């Protein structure tokens, strides 16, 4: 039908609810014709559209009232004049034109847009809201445009669901997407699967503080395009959605947060994470099952108080910034962690590298200073190991000296020395509003005089920390409690 309107020399529109004496500026676009779903194609496709009021009096053409119609429908004037053929309009903007329109049947909200996107699919009346999801799946097959995911939950839905799917339930969710346009330097391959939308190409996520939370943590931001709604090149903003990591290469959109909008310069300063072969759920039900918890069995948790900061965590596919832990590569953690878990961290303003061998129980830790072992550090944090890591066998073949390391590292501070010992303790932690058992990283610090070849015994450390021991001997300098610099 869209092609018929597009090929027509002229399209006549009778506005039966527009009275002859009513001023056009106030009443033209309030006519029911401008709010019906099927009439969107009648407005856009023909080059020449002529309007008539209730008395069949000619009141002007689409071109005569283009500014008035554009202000109401959010359709750019050049689209009303020339049509969408050859125009650079993103998917989200096109869907926003249908946001305020009504149809008698739910399915027609999707079927009336087929011609606008030049896609074809069977009409199945009775499928309800599923029709609009099918439309989006067909659009994804034909258009390489990530703005199709740039939609907002409705106001009343922001407090109803923690997770939502990647596709919008209806065109109404695109009401505020009229000023979005895609990145001109991004051409990402993505497709729908029975697991979700698969992004085969590399996508860039950003780690940001969760907005509007009394106890702010961090979540993932997936930028989908730019917004010109605020005017001017320097005032353009990045638009995106917030994600929660459920498992390795598996994410779900957060439903209790509106779409993100960041000044483009501020976005460039955010911590970035490049991932490949990543799924984002279409059906959010999976996020409410045991799937996220099964991936967190046998996890290694790295709490980040004021004295510790994580710079890098390899492999990135297993690391979750939100929960600050390594997930299992498989369900249930039966295989535990067959690869090297490598952390580049700062402890009390000292850079350290910490390796965790968790192939079997109990896990083994190895710590060293990167400045003392630059070759080994560069080897561990190679780009090729970033996503999937490396095996211990391969690592020891290339750096055999790492085999002799243990969980304690010696820091020379001139007149005194500091020894940091790392341990993993089984603890209960809260993730996804549920308590699980994980191996949680802790550390203790001992200060000793320079030249002392042994650290104070752990029993003496605990004795001094509890204040139960005698005064220090000439060999002891100071001892501090756990996690204290």
TrEMBL record:
Domain of life: Eukaryota
Organism of origin: Alternaria arborescens
Span of domain DUF8212: 130-156
Record's protein name: DUF8212 domain-containing protein
């Amino acid at each position: 039908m869209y092609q018929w309107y597009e090929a027509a020399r002229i399209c006549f529109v009778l506005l039966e609810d527009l009275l002859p004496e009513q001023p056009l500026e106030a009443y033209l676009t309030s006519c029911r014709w401008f709010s019906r779903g099927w009439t969107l194609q009648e407005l856009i496709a023909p080059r020449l559209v002529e309007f008539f009021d209730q008395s069949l009096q000619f009141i002007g053409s689409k071109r005569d009232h283009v500014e008035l119609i554009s202000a109401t429908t959010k359709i750019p004037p050049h689209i009303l004049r020339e049509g969408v053929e050859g125009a650079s309009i993103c998917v989200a903007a096109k869907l926003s034109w249908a946001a305020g329109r009504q149809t008698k049947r739910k399915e027609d909200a999707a079927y009336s847009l087929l011609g606008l996107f030049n896609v074809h699919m069977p009409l199945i009346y009775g499928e309800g809201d599923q029709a609009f999801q099918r439309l989006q799946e067909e659009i994804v097959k034909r258009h390489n445009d990530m703005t199709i995911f740039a939609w907002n939950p409705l106001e009343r839905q922001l407090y109803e669901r923690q997770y939502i799917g990647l596709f919008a339930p209806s065109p109404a969710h695109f009401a505020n997407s009229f000023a979005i346009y895609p990145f001109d330097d991004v051409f990402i391959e993505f497709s729908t699967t029975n697991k979700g939308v698969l992004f085969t190409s590399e996508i860039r996520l950003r780690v940001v503080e969760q907005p509007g939370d009394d106890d702010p943590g961090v979540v993932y931001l997936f930028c989908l395009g730019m917004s010109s709604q605020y005017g001017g090149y320097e005032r353009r903003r990045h638009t995106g959605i917030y994600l929660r990591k459920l498992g390795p290469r598996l994410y779900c959109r957060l439903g209790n947060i509106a779409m993100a909008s960041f000044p483009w310069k501020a976005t460039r300063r955010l911590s970035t994470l490049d991932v490949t072969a990543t799924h984002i759920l279409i059906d959010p039900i999976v996020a409410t099952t045991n799937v996220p918890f099964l991936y967190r069995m046998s996890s290694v948790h790295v709490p980040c108080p004021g004295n510790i900061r994580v710079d890098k965590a390899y492999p990135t596919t297993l690391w979750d910034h939100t929960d600050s832990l390594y997930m299992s590569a498989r369900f249930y953690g039966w295989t535990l962690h067959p690869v090297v878990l490598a952390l580049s961290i700062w402890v009390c303003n000292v850079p350290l590298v910490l390796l965790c061998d968790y192939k079997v129980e109990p896990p083994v830790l190895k710590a060293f200073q990167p400045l003392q072992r630059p070759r080994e550090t560069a080897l561990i944090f190679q780009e090729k190991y970033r996503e999937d890591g490396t095996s211990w066998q391969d690592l020891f073949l290339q750096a055999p000296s790492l085999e002799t390391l243990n969980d304690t590292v010696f820091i020379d501070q001139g007149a005194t020395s500091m020894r940091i010992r790392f341990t993993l303790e089984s603890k209960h932690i809260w993730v996804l509003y549920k308590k699980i058992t994980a191996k949680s990283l802790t550390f203790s610090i001992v200060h000793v005089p320079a030249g002392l070849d042994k650290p104070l015994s752990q029993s003496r450390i605990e004795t001094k920390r509890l204040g139960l021991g005698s005064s220090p001997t000439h060999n002891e300098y100071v001892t501090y409690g756990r996690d204290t610099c």
